[in-house]
Specification:
heterodimer; A: about 850 residues; alpha+beta; 10-stranded antiparallel sheet; 26 helices; 10 strands; about 65% helix; about 10% strand; globular; B: about 120 residues; mainly alpha; 2 domains
Amino acid sequence: MPTLDIPFFGTLVLCLILISASYTMAIAMGAGRGRPQLLPSARWGTYATCALVLVAVCVLAYAFQVHDFRIRYVARYSDRSMPWWYLIASLWGGQDGSLLWWAFLLAGYTFFVTRWLRGRYTELQPWIIATLMSILIFFVILMLFAANPFATYIRTTPGDGEGLNPLLQNYWMAIHPPSLYMGFVGWSVPFAILVAALITGRLGNEWVRAARLWSMIAWTFLSLGLLLGCLWSYEELGWGGYWAWDPVENASFLPWLVGTAYLHSVLIQERRHMMKVWNVFLLSLTFFLTIFGTFLTRSGLIASVHSFARSDIGQYFVWYMGFLVIGIAALMIWRLPKLKADNEIESLVSREFAFLLNNWVLLGMMVFVLIATTFPLLSQWIRGEEVTVGPGFYNKWMVPLGLVLLFLAGLGPLIAWRKATGSKLLRALAVPIGVGTTVAVLQFLFGARLGYPPIVEPTEIYDTATGTALAWMSAVAPVVSFATCAFVLTSIGQEFWRGMRVRMKRGEGAGTALVRLVSKGRRRYGGYIVHVGAVFMYIGFTGAAYDVEQESALRPGDTMSVGQHTVRYDQPRMEADPNKRMIFTDMTIVDEAGNEKGQVAPAKFIYRTHPQMPTTEVAIRSRLAEDVYVIMSTVDPSTRRGTFRIIIRPLVAWIWLGGIVLLLGSILSMWPTGRELLREEATRPRRLRFSPATAVVALAIVVATMMAWAGVASAQNDSSSTLHAGSVVINDPIERQLFGRLLCQCGDCARLPLDTCACSWADDKRVEVRAQLAAGVEPTKIQESFRAQYGAAALAIPSDAGLDRALWAVPLGAMLFAVGLVIVIGRRWQRRGAETRPTTVARAKAELEYDSRLDEELERLEES
Amino acid sequence: MSDFLPWLFIIVASLAVVAGLVSLWLSLSLALSDEAVSSVRAQIDTDARRALLTEKEALLQEIRDVSFEHDADKLSDLDFDELNAKLRAQARHILHELDEGAESFRDEAEALIAERLADEA
């Protein structure tokens, strides 16, 4: 290998990136401020900057491959025994490297956007480039002054590295962060287009169309990243769940919620030239939340199992977020006169209004999650008391909001734009409501027998009226969810059928009608398929209400029964590779007649670099109806006796299936039409055809490759790991409710509640609490004494009193205020719309000779 | 693979260095010359026309969608007539603007042809 001073060279390249990006930003701003001849120069400057970022990433990747442990980051996140693919994944495994990775993805987006912009949006271009460069400059400054991935050790260089955290040595972890970052970084592009539109004052639909594809790409990657994160959590963390409402998970969920609201709301602007200020706000907020999410992850301000180490970079983010807020607010105020709507809502029974309600729910969810995520910090600042907001709080509040959102997904397609007639709407609603009701009745009749009872046992997070109300809402959630899922699926199916029927009346066969219907309305029908994917995911989420779990100590040959499954423990087995030792326990799943249904092998992995952190590898047998999730807690090498925890998780596979359908729907809605492709070819030289089509195809290839890789990886290794060791036994619902409210205080797993934590401290505490319960002490008293002993932060959910009540009262109040506002504004618009309608019509020039040309164009559109 | 990868990263980094330097040189040379002025100005004119074409395309789609919703029995005849008339009026307006814009292109094209013919003569 050539001898290079890699640390020096890497830092030098970072400096060059800063110089090049600053130069490009200055040139681009010059081009935007009346010297358009500088635009080609700015474009080449952008390419130069992107190339330099690629150099920096290659240098760091090279350092990992040749084990250059002079570099601190390389030494901390790799070791000599790691295979090459984890050495590549180490690039984003720690804070400093992930900032470089972020810059790399931003440079990639910037490169493609700059190519795509050639020959279009000339007046927006300079400002788009300048904005993207400014974001890149921020990340390079972060690296150079606070988190340099090429920084070296001051004294001695270690002989070997510390190795990547065993939890990160997992195939999902190799693809989850890049995908999530692609989503986060991707929102920079539509944001840059928006900033350009605000600066130039070109605030019609031009910027919306320019940003459409890039918003969809960002949203798709963010969705994929969240989904892969769920998979990683489900397979890797070994607690049996896929979403723990951890601050870092929430940080990526927040921009997703607002981005989803934007994607719906912007349709109103495109179609009806309304809600321009709102869309500017939503897109800005989405981008802001990507930065805020990164800040939460990096600053270490909020405790999280995902957080990177506490570092100084938080202050840089605070300054940057302040700059963003002031900058965007100033631009919006400056351009307010140009952001006036051209139309008004003409009826509250219209698709526009349904989208407004959808925005209301999504933003309401965002406010709930945001306040709950930052509440520990706010509580610390305001009253100096640390509190914890555990998953129970989110699960209870998000379920009703999620169900309203789901209902709107079914209602929206049935309502016409602008104004729906009552009779037509009722006719459209009849079948979906009928099917939804039928499903609910069937569940009441047969659900319990099939293992899906309509109502589950209520569990309270508070001992107050709010707690009881929430408990009952979540108790009836299964039947409401299944009925709403059926309603939405029928509504979407009906939309397809109505569309097909129109085409079939024109003489097309059913198959042709379906194909042409979808191909002529990719965006609309792609969107419906996305909704189908979301419904499948809701089915999976609802399955969580029926989880069954059991724990047993077994000797080889013993069996244990969980739900309708019997699992036999066959034998332990040991294997080794250069990186770790692996202790497997072979188990067989048998049916009631004793026939073998499948094999699973949960295990313990002991990594060479982290012998003190044996990981528990869960084994999952996944079917559409349910997953059998097997965890080996302990195994005694001498007696071969093992302790196993088995969880039956109904319908989980529907979440992954829904995710795939959702991604396919997104790709379909982004797929370019033949006309778009033909126009690209007709107007642009062949060698420069970096079109939306190219971007969409590239996206499809990336997604397909990820899925294929994941599929192969999953087939090769149907297991994963956790740092848990030990077992959890819960005897009755009172214990479950109480243990769910108390957090382990061992110091290593502070955020885990006692109904999940398997460490010895939690075990002892459970025994103690059980004894108190047996002695007749009220659960509320036990909870109070736990709080008095360990502080408010030891409770998984803050109390429903005093300032703690603000946790739900503030977002709920904001939502109620917002819905009132939406209705009042809607009514005002409705009145104004009725008054202004004739003027709008009169504004267009009525030249009859153009009518025949329009008809010809419409015919061509239909044939293309 | 682990022997090949370091070389791969060196090769890619070297190529990127060359591409970066070339791009930077092109950027600087373009910044110091006025060659691009006319082409960028022409591009701005083309952009305006392209924006109108895109607007026309969106309106055509919208007219088609409204017609489809009417056929699918989502829009009443009255609403359809009003909405369709409004959209068609907007589309006619765009067509008119496109025609007006084409005049300047036609004048420019005629001037170029005349210039070329004069040169040949």
